[in-house]
Design brief:
Layout lengths: L1 E14 L2 E6 L2 E7 L6 H13 L3 E2 L5 E3 L1 H4 L2 E6 L21 H16 L5 E3 L6 E16 L5
Parallel strand pairs: 3-6, 6-7
Antiparallel strand pairs: 1-2, 1-3, 1-8, 4-5
Helix pairs in contact: 1-3
């Protein structure tokens, strides 16, 4: 599982003109799912995201997590994180999990995230989403659950 984590001042996602998710200060997290991802990958990603110390403390040092600042998290599914361009200019998505299985795993991620202490919002799986992000910094971190050690 891959997550692109962006520290944001605010972020929102709309589908067909309808606002489906919105946060103020916090994190926007794009999630890509591959074939062998499972619950341990979900837990790894959620733990890392919630505890990343990428918000500034009183001294201006990135030392606080989204939990510490009382921020929110906007999770958005994005299969294109497994796009492979090594073979040409058109990305291959063969490493992305099949649609139905990935939707179920993403739903499990969302359910698990809702049980934690950081408030979350989500996009709509498989929809044509318009995502507005005001990246703060910019600060962008890539997390890959297969590279945990």
């Amino acid at each position: 599982m891959r997550a692109v984590v962006q520290r944001v001042r605010h972020s929102s996602v709309t589908v067909d003109g309808e606002l489906v998710g919105k946060i103020e200060k916090g994190l926007t997290v794009l999630i890509g799912i591959t074939h062998d991802d499972e619950d341990k990958d979900i837990n790894y990603i959620l733990d890392k995201v919630e505890n990343l110390r990428i918000f500034e403390d009183e001294g201006g040092k990135m030392n606080l997590s989204v939990k510490d600042i009382g921020g929110g998290i906007l999770y958005i599914s994005q299969f294109t994180l497994y796009g492979d361009v090594r073979g040409g200019r058109r990305p291959s998505y063969t490493q992305a999990m099949a649609y139905d299985a990935a939707e179920k795993l993403f739903d499990r991620l969302v359910d698990a995230a809702k049980k934690r202490e950081v408030p979350i919002q989500t996009g709509r799986y498989g929809a044509d989403m318009k995502v507005e992000i005001l990246n703060d910094g910019p600060v962008t971190i890539l997390i890959d659950s297969k590279k945990e050690f």
